[in-house]
Amino acid sequence: MTGTNLPATIGPASVSEMLRHGRNLLIANPAFQKWAASFPLTRLIAERQSNALFDICSGFVYSQILLACVRLDLFSKLAGGPRPCAAVAEDLDLPFDATQRLLRAATALKLVDALEGERYGLGELGAALLANPSISSFVEHHALLYADLADPVALLRGETATKLSGFWPYANRKAGDPAPAGGEAYETYSDLMAQSQADIAEDILDAFPPTGRRRWVDIGGGEGVFASALAIVAPEVEAQLFDLPPVAARARSALQRRGMLSRVTVHEGDFVSGSLPKGADVMSLIRVLHDHDDETVRGLLARIHEALDPGGTLLIAEPMGGGAGSDRVSDAYFNFYLLAMGRGRTRSVAELTALLEAGGFSDVRVVPSRRPMLANVLVAQRV
Ligand SMILES: C[S@@+](CC[C@H](N)C(=O)[O-])C[C@H]1O[C@@H](n2cnc3c(N)ncnc32)[C@H](O)[C@@H]1O
Hints:
Helix content: 40-55%
Domain O-methyltransferase C-terminal: 184-362
CATH architecture of the largest domain: 3-Layer(aba) Sandwich
Distance between the termini: 44 Å
Number of domains: 2
Protein name: Demethylspheroidene O-methyltransferase
Domain O-methyltransferase dimerisation: 55-131
Number of strands: 10
CATH topology of the largest domain: Rossmann fold
Strand order of the largest sheet: 6-5-4-7-8-10-9
Pfam families: Dimerisation (PF08100), Methyltransf_2 (PF00891)
Keywords: Methyltransferase, S-adenosyl-L-methionine, Transferase
Bound molecules: S-adenosylmethionine
CATH superfamily of the largest domain: Vaccinia Virus protein VP39
């Protein structure tokens, strides 16, 4: 109930909402479920619903099976070709029965292929995982998230001291707090981000070709994977990045290792309290805004507006959700990830557009990209 004693829900607001509401009431009725299960057409629908619900229930189990495969390095052990279960058991140092259970579970998830004579080889997804080692780091990283999600209601109520907030040292800062010192705190997250950035960088540069640009500053640019890709794709563009001092130091070492230090300028600073490098005609925020609350985002957009050349472009790339067709990856997965991290949320294109327009940007548009579920690309012009 609200403060005025009105019920919090006042019923469907449109014909389509009314129809949806009616359909859901029917589905929730056990007598209807029983009836529906006895007719071929409705039986198919009922089956689809129970399968979908079962999939939601079992999602955690599936991910723990994957974690067991990763921790036991199962996919490398099958990389040389199919092997009998007994040989895999010996290699994994697991009892035969447990190995068989794991291999059969992994087969059901397409991670492994079961072959004649209780032999097992790499499955389609196991092979893909082997080709992308960053996925294994991601899977391992999820152990922290799942521990934080053990009591999701306590997490929603803000009663959980989460492990993920320790992983992201900037997540619990309030405006004006100094950036936490100590290089180690930044190491694990910077590594994880750098590993997953290469594909995203390629997607963004294909969606928004940098040709004809003069100077591009990647804000929150981490270890410079994106800035390096930019410098390679468009050597005529001055590639720059900006990040917190400990991360900028890591970026310099990483760029040096990649032989790119002379081609990327690294700026250090704090976009919550300091100013940004001036004179760019493009600035980007890749997987940055969703880590922050609206107040910080407004402040950052104001700083970008001040630093960017008039007519310059701001590019935002991150998972975006919240629209009418709510999205599993951004609205379910990333939103709960960010909740455990302790700060930020995914925003819809409409919400980002409103923040951008209020910050003095115009012509906001989505640029079609290869994997919008990981990073939808939005560009806006500085007025
Ligand atoms: C989720 S990571 C994304 C890194 C990179 N853009 C990518 O996509 O891999 C967010 C980045 O924003 C940086 N960051 C967070 N708070 C910052 C601040 N106040 N000033 C400057 N950089 C900040 C972090 O250090 C980190 O590198």
